[in-house]
Amino acid sequence: MGKIYMTACMKGGCAKTVTTYNLAYSLKELGKKVLCVDFDSQANLSTCFGVENPAAVPVTIGHLMMAQIDDDELPGFKEYIRSRNGVDFISSSMMLSAVDAKLRLEMGAEKMLSEILEPLRDRYDAIIIDTAPTLGALNINALAAADEVIITVNPQLLAMMGLQDFIKTVKKIRTRVNDRLSVAGILLTMCDARTNLCKVITEQVRDTFEGQIRIFESWIPNTVKVGESVYYSEPLIEYAPESNATKAYKNLAKELINYEG
Ligand SMILES: Nc1ncnc2c1ncn2[C@@H]1O[C@H](COP(=O)(O)OP(=O)(O)OP(=O)(O)O)[C@@H](O)[C@H]1O
Ligand SMILES: [Mg+2]
User: Fold this and answer.
1) Could you say which DSSP state residue 71 is in?
2) N or C: which end of the chain has fewer CB within 10 A?
3) For residues 246 and 23, what is the distance between their CA atoms, to the nearest angstrom?
4) In the predicted model, what is the mean pLDDT of the chain?
5) CB burial of residue 176 (10 Å; 0-12, 13-18, 19+)
6) Residue 25, number of CB atoms within 10 A of its CB
């Protein structure tokens, strides 16, 4: 039975999408079968997977959510799961923002994404949901569907702010909606080793969360290779196999798996 992960951070630009994408390929390299779900209407993850025009994809996660809300039958897996270099994905598009608006008018609609993903659990070792930096109805759905949250923190963005509130929300969702939910850990991303900031923020994160939430040993260095690999729609493992960021994402995948025992 596969695990459902969600990458999250309440700030934009904390490398959620880059982490989802590269973690997926690192897990694949360890022999895992992985599905990525783009759950952000910006569709950045879909672009990483080479989707040039997300609006032209016939069945996106937005369509599936609409069908689920309307109690319509979902199409077959083959109509919405695509594959690129050994990793499967479900695209997103702007349509997801219409879903967001619709969800707010529905009662008890926290489990829509969960209901879409549960039938897929048996087919994968890991399902990773990439989310937007907001705490609206969509992310409540993602938290209701996930087993584990990977919180990305970008030290350059005063990323500690808002973290406590988010962790509180995770606890609320666990007691009210999804008792399987836990925080897998905090991942420091876009760290610039030349500055002291990464060290300072890491210590601050440790002081605050030690004994409470795991902080991954792996941290992701800031490197131009990331932007380049996204531009070429290639995972780091293929675009820059020797890059330190590639190694960091490989280690992160191992940490996640070992953690699970
Ligand atoms: N390790 C890194 N080194 C350098 N640049 C990075 C790194 N990780 C991510 N970036 C760049 O930072 C930007 C933000 O990354 P990404 O899109 O993954 O963040 P996000 O948290 O998903 O943002 P959003 O909240 O808008 O969805 C991108 O331009 C990406 O290429
Ligand atoms: Mg993103």
Assistant:
1) T
2) C
3) 9
4) 93
5) exposed
6) 23
